[in-house]
Amino acid sequence: MMTEYGYVEEAMLEWLAGKDDDPNDHGLGWTYRSEADMEVCGRSLTDPIVEALLIPALMRINPAVDIEGKARKVVDALRRMLSLPDPLDANRRTLEALRDGIPVVLASGQDATTVKLIEFDPDRQHLNDFTVTNQYRVRGSETVKADTVLLVNGIPVVLAEYKSYITSGHDWTEGVNQLHRYQREAPALLVPNVFSV
Fold first, then answer.
1. Which is the most buried residue in 12, 24, 86, 189, by most CB within 10 A?
2. What is the pLDDT of residue 84?
3. β pairing state of 31-32 and 143-152
4. pTM
């Protein structure tokens, strides 16, 4: 019997990360990490950010972030932004930080340095970590589980929900309803969200 995974999700994962059985197929260059792979990163379910991916990426991208302690200051600044009381303001400010970087005082007595969260220079984009995963859980008032999430440097920027009318009798509107439920039940997942599919 075919499922949403078999009809859509598996094909999307293969398109992004390549087929497991073909070592020459890298898809669009994303790295697939299974739910078990993501658990190894030690992320708390209440945290949408994967620090184990973000901290090394910050150090690769930013020469001024040369030790883990400085990277943690950047993560703390990002978390303050993510936890702003108004989710729309938090989303707006987080998206600006993803695009423009975030000013952080990396050492006492120094001026703030603008630290990039994502490397956009085409010659340096290989320094980013592009992860695609599925069944990504985040706990708020309830635990939600997104079908597919794309994370850039450990930051979830794209959520995809799949529906198959053939298998469930639900169409795309059910996917929209799920995203609205995620916003109510685990809003932290959607704060860094660039778009949903």
1. 189
2. 94
3. unpaired
4. 0.92
